[in-house]
Structure formats: structure tokens, C-alpha cells
Amino acid sequence: MGLSTFIGGVHPYEGKELSADKPIQVIQPKGELVFPVSQHIGAPAKPVVAKGDAVLVGQKIAEAGGFVSSPVICSVSGTVKGIEPRLTAGGAMVSSIIVENDGEYRTVPGFGEKRDHTALSKQEIRDIVREAGIVGLGGAGFPTSVKLTPKDDDAIDYVIVNGAECEPYLTSDYRVMMEQPERLIGGLKVMLQLFDKAKGVIAVEENKPEAIKKLSELVKDEPRITVCPLKTKYPQGGERFLIYAVTGGRQINSSMLPADAGCIVDNVDTVVSIYNAVCESTPLIRRIITVTGDAVKEPQNFEVRLGTSYEELLEAAGGFKEEPEKMLSGGPMMGQALFSLHIPVMKTSSALTCFVKDPVAASPETACIRCGRCVEVCPGHVVPQMMMAAAERHDLALFEKLNGMECCECGCCTYICPAHRPLTQAFKEMRKAVMAERKKKA
């Protein structure tokens, strides 16, 4: 029997050898910390502190602004300097709480205390996860407590841990699986406590054999948990494609949630964060981040407190060995291009990737040659060539008719296109425009 996978996808250069064998290093912030109130899908959080307030590690500084929202927790002790717009990785100025770090890291009472998750009710677990500020750490930032609260607990038969880490160059999830496997399995057990009929599956791409071996050994006596090796292919870690691969063919579309297919899917670091919150009374105050690329002097994996500047991350990795033409928050397939590193690490930050040469700038766009390669690799089974024609005319109705909203913005079409057309970028803009139009009509 072959390895589990999906139809379509590409095989970009992995680049993981730069940092895969670099153990996670803990770095502490030096300057002020910046906490944007919108670090998740849904309503922005609402500040509950004011300028001049003293704050502690683990203190809530902004509360959830609705059901689909998430609080922001302070990662240092110090003083609130103000609340003002600050630049984020997406290029937007976002209202942010600025905290001057006193370097003492004093914590709120009870921070870090051990807790027996088996003595907790399902609602208590969900409340802890919500108050801990945990969101999907794989990039999307969907509030985890909402994901863990489907309409019917008994309809969930798979709890899938996404350990694919298919994005090139990123190795933070791999290092977590290698260094904190017990926490990962512990977090999965907490999740399984919510869903009595579910089995837990840790899905890992075959290019991480040591992680597969280690996790398989640790769960060999766990009746409800298995490890599922996946074929190495991008975007294997996309939620839709992961569900298809692990379950043997279940499918969801853009109007469905994984729970509609009987699945709960969470990224490796999200599951570890659930363990930290529920079992060790530690809210989400840190991220594991890969700093990598051929322009970086010493590619590394770091544990860093939320709010820390990307400039400090780069400094901890030895700075640039050569001035980069391209800097990305994230990896080369789905990362966001950066023009400044004066931005904060947020819940959705995964990597800083810097390249000496910008491969996009080096390849000028030409006319579509109708080769059909974009159609062959598209995991969403849409027709990028026709969608691009609609995008060029800004024809929203045609874009929708062509199932453009099923595009997952993975970048496979752009990667494979011999004409170097900015397909994914155009589809992102069209999807935003369609959603704005729908909102206006509603």
C-alpha cells in the first residue's frame, strides 16, 4: 500500500537541510514588545489595559471581541507604553498594545502550575483553551476553542495532528516533534478527551523519518493514537488535502469546516500549546520560529516570546551574510513578502525566510502559453488559466462561476507556470473582492 496523499501538488526544492538539525534555542526579547489586537481570524481583541499599567507574564491584556475571536496574553512583565497602530507582516497598520519589558519576567499567580486534565470537564478544557489565547499556529489563526466546539462531539471520529510541514525551508514543527514529542502526544490526549468516539492521528511527511520513528515508538501502546506517514508533496499540509489523505477520501470545500467531515485538524505547535495551557497553566505567549534562507548567516529554530521584533530574530541568527533581495514572513510558497523587519512576532508567525536573489524578479512575466500545467498541479481541481482571465477583467461573477472561491492560495499554479504569471496573487485579490461584495450584499 502506498503512502497517503492527494491528487495534484508540486515538489519544490525543500531547503530544510539549512535548519532541520538545529535544536530550538530560547531567545529573550531586548526592546519593547508589540502585541497587535488582531492576530487571528475573527473579531479583533479588545484592550483591557491602558497606558501606564503594570503587566505580568501570563496576564490578559486584550479580551476576545466575540465568539470567533481570541484574547491576547502578555509574554513579559513591564509597563504599557501605549496603544497605537503598528506595522504587521501582512503590511497593514494594526492597533497594538506596546509593552516596555522590565526584563524580570514576573508572572501572574498560578502560572506554570501542573494540572490533571483527566479531572477536568469538557467545558473546562474548552474554557482554558479559549482563555489561553490559543489559535491555529499553522498560519490561518482560527481560534482553537471554536474549532474544539463543533455542533456534535459524537460526529467527530478523527482528531488529526498536522505534522506535514510541507512548506519549503520551515523546520520548526519538525524540531517540536523531535524535542517535545511527549507534550505533543499529551496535547492530543487532551483533545481526545473532548471526543469520545474519535481516534487520534499524527500525520507526518515521509521526509521526516526520525520524527515518524520517535512518535510511532511513543504511541505503540496508545489504543486511540496512530502515526500516519504521508507522501512528501506540497501542499500536503493543507487542511483539505490532509483530511483527504488521512481518511482515505473524505472531502470538504470552501463552504465547509473539517468538522463537517467528522474531523478536527490542528497543527503540531497548536497541540503542544493546548498541552501547555491545560496541563501546565501556561497560556500562549511564545512561538517556535525558523529563521532561514541563503541570505541568513546561521539558520536556526527559535522559541521566542510573542511581541518580539523580527529584527531581534535575525540578529540571533547572526544577521545577513549577504543583503537579501527577498524577505518573507513564512516560507517561499505561502509567505508574505516583507519590506521591513520592524514588525512583531505574532501568533500566526512561523518563519523568517531571506533569499539573496528574488526568483520572481529574475523571471519576467510573459503571455500564457495554454500548456495546462497549472490545471495538472492544482489540488483544488479548478482551472487557473480561466480564473486568471476573469481576474484580469475583474469579473467577480465569472470568477465565482469558475469555482474561484475553491482556490486555497497554495501557490502551486504560480510555481509551475512557465510564463511566470502571478496567478496566486491575482486569485487572492479576487477572493478578497468576492468576500467584500458578499459582505456588502448581506
Any overview of this molecule?
The chain has 442 residues and is α/β, with parallel strands linked by helices. Helices cover 26% and strands 19% of the residues. It contains 13 helices and 17 strands. The strands form four sheets. It has a six-stranded mixed sheet with strand order 1-14-13-17-15-16. A four-stranded antiparallel sheet has the order 2-8-7-4, with no helix packed on it. Strands 11-10-9-12 form a four-stranded parallel sheet, sandwiched between helices. Strand 10, helix 5 and strand 11 form a beta-alpha-beta unit. Helix 4 crosses helix 7 and helix 10 packs across helix 13. It is globular.
Q: State the low-pLDDT regions, or none.
A: none
Computed Rg: 21 Å
Computed structural class: alpha/beta
Order of helices and strands: EEEEEEEEHHEHHEHEHEHEEHEEEHHHHH
Which oligomeric form is depicted? single chain
On the 0-100 scale, what is the average pLDDT?
A: 95
Instruction: Report the helical percentage.
Output: 25-40%
Instruction: Order the strands across the largest sheet as they lie in space.
Output: 1-14-13-17-15-16
Largest β-sheet summary: 6 strands, mixed
Given the structure, what is the number of helices? 13
- Based on DSSP secondary structure assignment, what is the total number of beta strands? 17
Please give the alpha-carbon distance between the first and last residues: 48 Å
**Estimated share of beta-strand residues:** 15-25%
Which word captures the global form?
A: globular
